[in-house]
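Schema walk-through. Below, the input block comes first and the output block second. Nothing else is stored per chain. Lengths vary across the set, and this one has 864 residues.
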Amino acid sequence: MSRTGLKMRGMSAHLLPASTTGASCAHQVQFYDDEKILVASAADFLAGTLAEGGCALVLATEAHRRSFRMRLSGVCPDDKIVFVDAAEALGQIVVNGKPDEHLFNQLVGGLLDTLQGRGKLRIYGELVALLCADGQHEDALLLESYWNRLATRREFELFCGYPISVFPGTAHAAVFRHVCQAHSRVIPIGGTAIMAPAEMAVLQQKVLSLDDEVLRRRQAEESTRARERDLAEFAENAAEGLHQVAADGTILWANRAELELLGYSADEYIGQHISRFHLDQPVIQDILKRLSARETLRNYPARLVCKDGAIKHVLIQSNGRFENGVLRYTRCFSRDVTERVAREEAESERNDLLRQAPVAAALLVGAEHRFELANDVYKSMVGKFDLEGKTYEQALPELCARDDTLRILDEAFESGHPYVAEEHLTLVERDGSGRFDERYFKLSVQPLKRVDRLYGLMLIAVDVTDLVAARRGQERASAEREALLRDLERASRAKDEFLAVLGHELRNPLAPIVTALELMKRRGDLKTSKEQDAIHRQVQHLIRLVDDLMDVSRVTRGKLTLREETVPLASVLAKAVEMVSVLMEQRQHTLKAVYPDSGMLWHGDPTRLAQVISNLLTNAARYTPLGGVIRLETRQEEGSVVISVTDNGRGIEADALPKVFDLFYQGAQTIERAAGGLGVGLALVKSLIAAHSGTVEARSAGPGQGSEFTVRLPLPSSDQLKAIAPEALTISRGTGLRRRVLIVDDNQDAADLLGAIFREHGHDARVAYEPAAALTLAPSFKPEIAFLDIGLPVMDGYELAALLRKELGNAAPLKIFSLTGFGQPADREKSMRAGMDGHFVKPVEEAQVLQAALSIDMAERTQA
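--- output ---
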């Protein structure tokens, strides 16, 4: 039997009257007047269990112990039987002349422990008989009850021996009857009578008459024991902790739930002072004091210390058992509320945080959403301050009629799912005026649960009205900005289209002018040489203006294309100087150019670099008074080539230096001192140099101190040096074969003059002003080269090219070149896709178109 089970039965023995208790095994009594009869009966009782491998405990006088040893010698080994002096044992359990149950349990329980596990136990005891011999019959009956209660906790059989002499006469008949009632079996008196025959007869008759009463009582006690067992099982296995505490605070018993709550075994817990297990000593002292004063405690909070050091929060229900006005013991129930206390503490901390939160917060409980808490921010938000205890609908009827917050609360409570809205529109009453403002809140509704049961909602609202207004302002600004960007893009496209059309329209009339000048020079018309030079200068200036405008357009749209090659740097600089030579002469400037060695090579677009340097030289020439000095110098520094253009002109003010490369910036000018230009030259310089991974910088000491522009470009890599461009072919009159050239342009002047150029160089040139005439002429003329204007009437140059190739077939191989005022990369790509062999932008140089004819000569010579 487990220790827990023993303690359980001990509890029930205290709860029930001693007269109804009894062991499941026999508790018998032998009345005797002859020692030999006692020794024989008791020895047989003990021998019965020893013979079956059991054990025995003898609490007897010294004389009886000797007799038992003689009778039992040889029956069992010494470790199966324990002999104890009954008088000494009685002395250990008597306090102030009365037996003490606690001491009795300690003594006898300890003896039983020594025999634990040695088989079935039988006990012979004379402690009660010794008390009767001293005339302490009441104390003897009390001690019998101790034995009976112990028997409910421990398994043993008990044999008591009473000399009949301790009941001298009929005066002790009542005591004699109580002794018999305390035992489950009464053995009639044996031996020779030492009493008067009449008295012996009376006692013998009483013994015999008790047999029937004992039988009836035994049946009743069996029924009572069954109820006791049920009650004991009920108490021991109750789901709530139960324990019994003596008046002095000693723990007498505890059930399984109590022990499991604190983690102690029965031996570790029972017998200790109750205060040892209370964390707060003033609390247990108050509990004991109140119980001693006959108070009944209900839901008294306390904190108990577990074996592992953990703290358990309990509610104690307790009252006391009093006898003759004195507290005997207390009955205590311990209800574990640790989780509830932890939850309540957590909820209290949460509520404190919500009260102090800088955002609106409220707790609503139940399906009706009754306010349990609302912090000051929430109350200010809704304009109401008496919310606690009211339902949401009672407290805020105006809001219920104006927004959907109540619906959100209902849905969150019914579903158990949280609700979050980044911008929840709520109407808020201000200052009790009855006027409502629209406010936006970041709203969070979180379900609250206790032991998996939804009991309420936590509502958090953060006012984001200003953020919403700011975001919407940003959205409007962004929309306006996007609309503006679209407008700018449309304007930019319109500008690009305008520039393209402008370039085309300007180049068309320039083409015949340039061609006419070439013819006039070739024919040696000296009378108009001065006028020719003037026209040439202005035409070249106009061409550069158009080129710059078109290049700026390409750069701003990211469509600038570089045609890179490795060339001698000196040749590029010489080309740039040639481009501005007329302007230098006109402005009467001295240009001092220091060219690099012919071996210094550079990799990039030579045309663009020549354009950059010519723009810098042009800028210097314009902003330097007549007769100025301009220097062009080149040097090599740390893997870079440095090209500088220096003048002694007007200089640049300090605040204007950062702006000189801005598009259309021309500095402070007066009408009298206007230098001309569109303000795109330096902007184009910066873009073109950046496209070559270089830098350009402007410096000036101030007005009247001149200026210096410095360009830094990387030197070519070893791989780039392997691809050196061949020298330009020299065009000379009458070189190569005579070619049949077809020119188609609706600008008759341009067509006629270009035809004249080819005829001057010995070629057979025919001119058509519309596609139909060209298609009529081609089959008989069989042209080898054709220059087609793209912007023709009826059909464009691309369609005409396709028809010409179809008409002529393979009978006459034909090279066709575009001749147009549109010179953007997209225009060149379109020409290539249309099958053109080249793309010329008006006005064209004589050398360019003649080079086309010469390239055919070169190809034929190579094939030959």
